[in-house]
Design brief:
2 domains; alpha+beta; DNA polymerase, domain 1; 5 helices; 5-stranded mixed β-sheet; Ubiquitin-like (UB roll); binds FE2/S2 (inorganic) cluster
Length: about 160
């Protein structure tokens, strides 16, 4: 076992991990961040997406030891002082989810876009979220929610 340190949603965590353990396993099963969903474990569905060092990563494809020292954001970290983030409000108001299984991954991708690409075009938004699979919505409401979140956060949409 190896001890790693992660900053998760602003809090420092020390965790003992095996060298073959995934970041997904650490976040979901050891740190109990249940917004991080598990599905294919093969990098195909994107459901396990989190923000690591300001990059969107599929956490099943990152070894926990590779994440040592990293800063991680999950959906649990988006609400501050009881206030939801613009992307969360946008998903609610634009009906960006149905069953909700994919929603944490899309919310984090949208949050990343809001913060890093406030002038993103619809094509760019679709490109960034293309690694995440939704079986319910047809993606339109998700894209609409991300465009709306950009407007909420920055006063204009891409
Ligand atoms: S569970 Fe990670 S990509 Fe599917
Ligand atoms: S809302 Fe059901 S999989 Fe996306």
């Amino acid at each position: 076992m190896v001890r790693i340190t992660l900053t998760v949603n602003g809090e420092k965590k020390e965790v003992d991990v095996s060298i073959s353990e995934s970041l997904l396993h650490v976040l979901r099963d050891k740190l109990h961040l249940r917004s991080v969903k598990a599905n294919c474990y093969r990098g195909e569905c994107g459901i396990c997406t989190v923000i690591m060092n300001n990059r969107l990563v599929k956490s099943c494809q990152v070894l926990a030891v590779e994440a040592d020292g990293a800063e991680i954001i999950t959906v649990e970290g988006l609400t501050r002082d009881g206030k939801i983030a613009p992307i969360q409000r946008a998903f609610i108001e634009k009906f960006g989810f149905q069953c909700g299984f994919c929603t944490p991954a899309f919310v984090l991708a949208g949050h990343w876009i809001v913060n890093n690409m406030p002038k993103a075009s619809e094509d760019e938004i679709r490109e960034i979220i293309s690694g995440i699979v939704c079986r319910c919505t047809g993606y339109k409401q998700i894209v609409d929610a991300i465009k709306y979140a950009i407007m909420l956060a920055h006063g204009e949409s891409g």
